[in-house]
Design brief:
With about 400 residues, the chain is an alpha/beta fold. The protein is about 50% helix and about 10% strand. The protein has helices spanning about 15-25, 50-60, 70-75, 80-90, 105-115, 120-130, 135-150, 150-155, 160-175, 200-210, 220-225, 235-245, 250, 260-270, 275-280, 290-300, 305-310, 320-335, 345, 350-365, 380, and strands at about 5-10, 30-35, 40, 45, 65-70, 95-100, 180-185, 315-320, 340, 385. Strands 1, 2, 5, 6, 7, 8, 9 and 10 form an eight-stranded mixed beta sheet that branches. A two-stranded antiparallel ribbon has the order 3-4.
Length: about 400
């Protein structure tokens, strides 16, 4: 049994994701685990479809087991996003390989860059560019260009490469002994607005969903009509209410807020009449739009700095097929974290696990307000695991 894992959002699942899953099979994976973000994602908004709907799409297209990257990590910076995903994989105790897409496609280069970015002397150079007012991702890119040239600099300029390096780094920090396998991303770029031979970026498909249009992605079209579309803009007024009620200290207690940023956030919250206006008032070279969106989402969902610094408390199962059942059987013998299949499992765990789950539950209670029809609270505790018979 060769169990390969992939960390992703699948927001939404599409042909490019299926390509990666198929490549994992070609590389010898007999069983595939997806560590998937839940109902909110790293770009600081709700997913377009629920985690259960996206899990079903995964399972119908080659994935065997879907487990969740806990919300507090799935909506965090790249490093903490990777920390959560790797923590879940380690917790399963039976994964042999971590697979990921990358613009580079060269595992040796990615491993080398992952080693460079962890060195203290590299951070010292990064700090120089941070002091020039650049964002952390841009400062790190400029630091590696200065020290090691444009070849390595180009790696840290591409989003999938950045995540790949973070995955490798987090595996080493966690002492997770797995092989790495990367699949080169060739068809479309991460945020491409153009289709290429039936391949679309997830961002373009989200735009197609918003405009109620059709795509030529047969994988995506095969399941989209069975999903209920979620629209994050329905929460705009609620977010503004929350932001207007925050003090400087409240902002300071949010993840990703540092170096006096709380004053800028507070001032913007008092002036802005829309989220887009709030973003414009806060955004600078240092404070990227994605960072600001995540801060707003954390404010809405009640995620605090200390929550993002918590340990991964459990492995939450969202869905599986027959092969996934085999993975779970092996995991029950080797797992280093509790495997959560139902709400009652949470009651037996520690306060850290209960805090993570409480945040998840509240977030889903908010998430169900983003559809055409509002739903009552409690879905996180009552929704069944997705089971596919194959």
């Amino acid at each position: 049994m060769k169990i390969s894992a992939v960390i992703s959002e699948f927001n939404p699942f599409h042909k490019g994701h299926k390509f990666i899953i198929d490549k994992m099979r070609e590389n010898g994976a007999t069983h595939i685990v997806a560590v998937m973000s839940g109902n909110f994602v790293q770009r600081g908004e709700s997913a377009v479809f629920s985690k259960w709907e996206r899990a079903r799409a995964c399972l119908e297209n080659g994935v065997d087991l879907v487990v969740e990257n806990p919300l507090v990590f799935a909506t965090a910076s790249a490093q903490r996003f990777a920390f959560g995903g790797v923590g879940v994989i380690k917790g399963l105790g039976c994964v042999n390989e971590l697979s990921f897409g990358s613009e580079s496609g060269n595992i040796d280069e990615l491993v080398k860059v992952s080693e460079i970015i962890e060195k203290d002397e590299f951070f010292a150079v990064t700090l120089k560019f941070l002091n020039d007012g650049l964002s952390y991702p841009k400062a790190r890119e400029m630091a590696i260009r200065e020290q090691f040239g444009d070849n390595f600099g180009n790696i840290l300029s591409s989003p999938n490469n950045i995540l790949a390096c973070e995955y490798i780094s987090e595996c080493k920090k966690a002492g997770l002994d797995v092989d790495f396998y990367t699949i080169r991303r060739e068809s479309v770029d991460h945020d491409s607005t153009n289709e290429n031979n039936g391949f679309y970026s997830a961002s373009l498909l989200r735009e197609i969903i918003r405009n109620n249009e059709k795509s030529d992605d047969e994988i995506f079209e095969s399941y989209r009509n069975n999903c209920k579309v979620k629209d994050f803009t329905r929460l705009e007024a609620a977010i503004l209410v929350k932001l207007r009620n925050f003090t400087e200290d409240d902002f300071k207690n949010l993840p990703d807020v540092s170096e006096g940023m709380e004053n800028r956030l507070y001032s913007a919250a008092q002036k802005a009449c829309s989220l887009s206006e709030f973003f414009e008032l806060v955004k600078t070279k240092r404070y990227t739009l994605s960072r600001i969106r995540r801060i707003c989402l954390c404010a809405l969902l009640g995620i605090e700095k200390e929550d993002v610094e918590r340990e991964v408390p459990y492995v939450r199962v969202i869905g599986f097929n027959d092969k996934g059942r085999e993975i779970l059987k092996t995991a029950r013998e080797k797992a280093t974290l509790p495997i959560v299949m139902k709400y009652s499992d949470i009651k037996e765990l520690d306060d850290n696990a209960k805090r993570i789950f409480d945040i998840e539950s509240f977030a889903t209670d908010i998430f169900v307000l983003t559809g055409e029809k509002n739903l009552p609270c409690g879905l996180e505790k009552t929704e069944n695991i997705v089971i596919i018979k194959k």
